[in-house]
Amino acid sequence: MSQTEVENHAVEAGDDSGRDGNLSVGSEKTIGESGPEEGQQEVPKTPDVPPDGGYGWVCVACVALINAHTWGVNSSYGIFLAHYLQYNTFPGATALDYAFVGGLSISMALGVSPLATICVREYGTQVALFVGILFEVAGLLGASWATEIWHLFLSQGLAFGFGMGFLFVSSVGVVPQWFSKKRSFANSIATAGSGIGGMMYSLSTNAMIQSIGLNWAFRVLAILACAVNVVCTLLIRDRNKAIGSVQLAFDVSLFKRVEFLLLLGWGFFSMLGYIVLLFSLPNYAVSVGLTAQQGSVIGALLNLGQGIGRPFVGYFSDAAGRINMAGTCTFFAGLFCLVIWIFAKSYGVLIFFAILTGTVSGTFWATIGPVGAEVVGLQVLPSALSIVWIVLVFPCTFAEPIALELRTASGDIYLHAQIFTGMMYIGAAVCAWFLRAWKVRELEGLKVREADVAVSNDDAARGDGLRRHASRASTLKVAKGLWSWQRV
């Protein structure tokens, strides 16, 4: 049984602070003394309880703005991609080359996570954030002077990806440290920043390219990203010391846990679908006869759907269960791709699809922090997320190239890519489904421990009753976890 589950029931009913995985063990010594004096009792440590608000809301706003000026800016790559393909901006470059640039920025952002985690551990969150700002601005400025495709790989791909990674990895764990009962809601507001930013920059990037040109569009993005991220870095505060956060770059022991492997599977398949949808939708709109401006609007509305939908996903996650909501929304993302996107040939239907699917397409980003805390505990969460980001490098790098290779020369050009996207989301939902089965079994197993505690306290009558109930519960197979309803 995981430490998290023991602590879930170690507090009064209705208090979710036990989910944090932060309960301290041992005692603290009197300040200034190496140990307690004779006859003096040691003072037991009290569990760290997140304030569930206060300055945490400032941190939520800061993380939301950082997401808007990292992932939000990166979401506009669909606009850059459509421009590159339409005007052959870099002679000799193929569609596959352009696809790898977009995938490289995300994969580098995730691949740099161990280094970013070490930087946070050694030098603190703010230093790591400033390193990210430096790389991001350098990448955008470098792309503005790019004349060959390999320049674009180094700037918009590599350098921008490094910057986005340092900013993301350093800030992603901050919000869950400030909240317990409202954790999913607060985290979803922070991640909604990437959707709102993606909407704004999808529209503004296309307008800037048309009015001031490609090069100056990059430079304006660099100036805006630098200014906003610097202000947020100065304001943000973490609680790493308060919760005793473990900042390991690569904790291999986590691979021995089946639940963690299911978490990785959920993220892996989600990204294969998400990246294709994010980068291909604007160009798909052009392929069915719409204009580049209309394609940019479709991409912006997909991001708007994420910005609007993620807070609702987070709110209902706290109410209905974080794993429950993650799996359900992931399934609906796949379903919408299969039953709506494939048949969306007009501007109006694509607008409907973009907004509707946007609410659930990025569920992974909105819920990975809270779901990860449910699976491994809040203390180990930074180490677990570091591994998650590394595992996601592969799907983020190759998702869009796979989609472009799946295109056909005639007919429904994107049909195979659309089917691929829908099935990847459904595969991710299956992993989440089995993850909730594990969680249900963990909760049932906890009843056995409660029975043991009752017996050890000489409460024999209550203990026997609990033991009989727990024995029946412990014999349940995975099937019950798959089909029974429980808030997990």
From TrEMBL:
InterPro entries, alphabetically? MFS, MFS_trans_sf, Proton-linked_MCT
The answer to whether UniProt assigns keyword Transmembrane to this entry is yes
Transmembrane spans: 98-120, 127-146, 158-178, 185-204, 216-237, 258-278, 325-344, 350-368, 375-394, 414-435
Region Disordered, as annotated, extends over: 1-49
Ordered alphabetically, the record's keywords are: Membrane, Transmembrane, Transmembrane helix
Q: GO CC: one term?
A: membrane
| Composition bias type Basic and acidic residues, residue spans | 1-19
This protein's membrane topology, according to the annotation, is: Multi-pass membrane protein
Which compartments is it annotated to reside in? Answer: Membrane
Question: What SUPFAM superfamilies does the database record attribute to this sequence?
Answer: MFS general substrate transporter (SSF103473)
MF terms in GO: transmembrane transporter activity
Coiled-coil intervals: none
> Record's family?
Belongs to the major facilitator superfamily. Monocarboxylate porter (TC 2.A.1.13) family.
Protein's name in the database: Putative transporter MCH2
